[in-house]
Recover the amino acids of this structure.
């Protein structure tokens, strides 16, 4: 089992996680996508696919804002594989909650009324993780 991602051990990745979380919480989904993609490129850990799940969740929010049902559903169906395949205690976000949101939004994409983009409050999760240890 790998140790948790911390600011001290992964400063660049942590900065990108913060930037992405803040952008996501502000409903700037493309900016969140870009920040997390930068983190994905910089991080070489064996569980870097977790970041891909975050990137896809941000892409889903972006597509939902624009009313793009098919692309939103496609990334919402892929994101859980990346999120669930990593140790949930290693990452500073509530992975179980992210998985539930992905499932609910994917199901909502099959209904006549397109679901609203998610509101997750990721920044407080990240701040809480700074106090662990």
């Amino acid at each position: 089992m790998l140790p948790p991602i911390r600011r001290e051990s992964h400063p660049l990745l942590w900065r990108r996680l913060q930037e992405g979380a803040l952008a996501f919480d502000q409903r700037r989904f493309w900016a969140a996508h870009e920040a997390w993609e930068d983190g994905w490129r910089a991080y070489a850990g064996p569980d870097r696919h977790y970041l891909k799940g975050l990137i896809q969740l941000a892409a889903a929010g972006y597509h939902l804002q624009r009313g793009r049902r098919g692309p939103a559903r496609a990334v919402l169906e892929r994101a859980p594989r990346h999120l669930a395949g990593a140790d949930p205690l290693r990452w500073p976000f509530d992975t179980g909650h992210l998985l539930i949101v992905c499932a609910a939004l994917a199901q909502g994409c099959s209904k006549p009324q397109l679901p609203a983009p998610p509101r997750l409050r990721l920044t407080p999760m990240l701040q809480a993780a700074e106090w662990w240890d």
About this structure: The radius of gyration is 14 Å. The chain has a mean pLDDT of 95.
